[in-house]
Amino acid sequence: MKEMQNKLNNQIDKLKKLYKIKLKPKITKFFKMIFPNKIMNNRNSALVFKRLILFALLLFVLQCFVVSIVVFIVVKSGGKSFILPDVQNKGIYEAIKILEKEKINLNIQARYFNNYPLGTIVSQEPKGGVKIKKGRTVYLVVNAPEEITVNMPDIIGLKYEEALNIISNDVISKLPNVIINNKVESREDIQENNIVLSQTPLANEIIKSDSEITLIVNNKE
Fold first, then answer.
1. How many CA atoms lie within 13 A of 134 on its CB side?
2. What are the b/e assignments for 77-95, b being 16+ CB within 10 Å?
3. pLDDT band at 25 (very low <50, low <70, confident <90, very high)
4. Residue 111 — very low, low, confident or very high, per pLDDT cuts 50/70/90?
5. Taking a C-beta distance cutoff of 8 angstroms, is the pair 105, 126 a contact?
6. d(CA 43, CA 67)
7. Integer angstrom CA distances of residue 12 from 26, 110, 130, 159, 175
8. DSSP letter at 193?
9. 4 exposed, middle or buried (CB, 10 Å; 0-12, 13-18, 19+)?
10. What's the pTM?
């Protein structure tokens, strides 16, 4: 530890001697060339001008540093150019595997086309063969099956058991995740119990896989 400290002190001493012997005379000569003798002979004025020059030099160095950083970021973000592979008509997994090697961003949309095999890339933007830079977004459209939907049957006025049977056959058989909720309500104008008074969704409305069906059933008890 002491040896390292001694070496460091020796280096500092050498730098001080170098400054006094070589750098200081050159700096003094430089200031004498720039400023008149009256200013240089005035200690306060010379000190102020020296500080201004040093500040200007530091500002210039800082400006160069900032410009270098900005240029580096711009060049880095732009990335290298390459020829975009053509993945149209390829399977989605194969297409992703090919494009991920090029380190580009993917935006994938699913649509249904009856003239393409399922899971096939239908379109690509930009098109394959175009020269682009790494980091750019490529938009793909993949052929996916249509979402299964059914129309809500009209079950108002039916017995609750009959309504459940119709819902099971027409809806649950195709959309097993649909939830059925039933609520009880008493209606004096309807004599018979367990009659469906209202339904949500209404008849012929679209039901999707995450829908809920709510039935209000008459019960006087």
1. 10
2. eeeeeeebbebeebebeeb
3. low
4. confident
5. no
6. 36
7. 20, 69, 59, 100, 82
8. S
9. exposed
10. 0.41
The predicted-structure confidence for 139-195, as pLDDT tens digits, reads as follows 999 988 777 889 999 999 999 999 999 999 999 888 888 899 988 887 777 778 889
Residue with tokens 């309500």: 185
Q: How far apart are CA 106 and CA 136, in angstroms?
A: 9
Closest to 108 (Cα-Cα) out of 116, 86, 120: 120
CB atoms within 10 A of CB 198: 14
3-state per-residue secondary structure call for 31-63: HHHHCCHHHHHCHHHHHHHHHHHHHHHHHHHHH
Answer whether 212's CB lies under 8 Å from 184's CB: no
Q: Name the residue among 26, 30, 46 with its Cα closest to residue 38.
A: 46
Give the alpha-carbon dihedral of 35, 39, 44, 45, to 10 degrees. -60
Amino acid occupying residue 11: Q
Parallel, antiparallel, or unpaired: how do β-strands 212-218 and 179-185 relate?
Answer: parallel
Provide the pLDDT for residue 144: 82
* CA-wise closest residue to 124 among 150, 99, 148: 99
The H or E element spanning position 203 is none
